[in-house]
Amino acid sequence: MSNPASPPAVDVLDERPGLTFPPGFLWGAATAAYQIEGAAAVDGRTPSIWDTFSHTDGRVLLGHTGDVACDHYHRLGDDVALMAELGLKSYRFSVSWSRVQPGGTGAANPQGLDFYRRLVDELLANGIEPWLTLYHWDLPQPLEDAGGWPARDTAARFADYTTLVADALGDRVRYWTTLNEPWCSAFLGYGSGVHAPGRTNGADSVRAGHHLMLGHGLAVQALRAVRPTAEVGVTVNLYPVDPASDTPADSDAARRIDGLANRFFLDPLLRGSYPEDLVADLSTVTDFDHVRDGDLAIISTPLDLVGVNYYSRHVVAAPVEGVEADPAPSCWPGSEDVRFVTRGVPVTDMGWEIDAPGLTETLRRVHEYTDLPLYVTENGSAFVDSLVDGQVDDVDRLAYFDAHLRAAHEAIDAGVPLRGYFAWSLMDNFEWAWGYTKRFGMIHVDYDSQVRTPKSSAKWYASVIRRNGLAAQ
């Protein structure tokens, strides 16, 4: 079994005056079902697209799968005890659609719901606010076989599933996220194919994005019908997008990528429309005939909050004249020839540039769209960790968190209604197409023994939570 080691009783931060966050600021950590639960064929759970994808040769590095992952399904109590010892005020987890509603249609699976009932009850017993995400990329395989997210009916099935979960857990769960990062589901899953289900069709990726948002809107309505007092939002992954130079061509490249990365979702969700320039950019890909009258009104159903996942910045440049675009399938339909530029700044083990000021920019930008409360629902970094004498001294990750929390505080000082922050991730886990080769966790997981070891970043984060703030620099 796991060994929930306690963080040190003393603060690892000094006591000099520093930055204090608002009273009631919600400090949390996040995970996703397929990445940690394991128990892939236990108690009635059936395959999702990620089960199928990870079991397909060549899709996931080293052939890794989520069959066991962190075995959280069988170690729920120990894992919640670790959360409590870290002092988490909230825990953001996702529900496996295939565990709750095998096949994606029909009645709920009682054993699947019971797992999440136990999780919620254990969290509440430890004073931790449950934050439930309904969809984190794990579509039931039969729904994919019927067309997946490019098919309109999937949105309706998502609303049905939402009702089942709301009926079972809505009396104890206050905070709800419908979708996690629909950009990844749509454009990595159906465009470049590097994520499940591994399809590579630009028009399908655009349809998938629309139907994901339609499913979101229908799910918000379904939730409110069952639990009118629920706090409901959606989580989008956003990036500042900068041109590599001040030339008109590079500026236009930035506009195009910003349209696909950010405005494709922000505008329909918060303004009830697609940007005209984005529709024009995609005219060679789709004529948007999948958008029906009334869709955008459903998609823009009023929310209670917005979740922002932030990891890095994009810097882009115009195509080089005479150089053909990479023929590989792209997650940037209609803009496949835009070049992504590296700047020579420090990067994480994922190769993502570390850019804390981009979090401030992103939060301020979302606030320009809405006065709704905002939450950083994911922020974190992968680095190469070493377990030495029972300790993991992940100083790079600690520094990453510190810098990004200071950027979050700067956004608050600028008037952004930021209400909480969720570190990604609580523990090392199955990192999608990278398998178990990338570690994002504050808690180290030995995948052979399933022993959990809090890293230095976890102990530091516990001190931040206790103080509700950061030390002076």
Automatic annotation (TrEMBL):
GO molecular function (one): beta-glucosidase activity
Keywords assigned: Carbohydrate metabolism, Cellulose degradation, Glycosidase, Hydrolase, Polysaccharide degradation
Q: Give a yes or no for keyword Hydrolase in this entry.
A: yes
What InterPro entries does the record tag this protein with? GH, GH_1_N_CS, Glyco_hydro_1, Glyco_hydro_1_beta-glucosidase
What the entry lists under SUPFAM superfamilies is as follows: (Trans)glycosidases
Q: Quickly give the catalysed reaction.
A: Hydrolysis of terminal, non-reducing beta-D-glucosyl residues with release of beta-D-glucose
Q: Does the keyword Hydrolase apply?
A: yes
- EC number of the protein: 3.2.1.21
State the family named in the UniProt similarity comment for this chain: Belongs to the glycosyl hydrolase 1 family.
Q: What is this protein called?
A: Beta-glucosidase
Please name the source species.
Answer: Micromonospora ureilytica
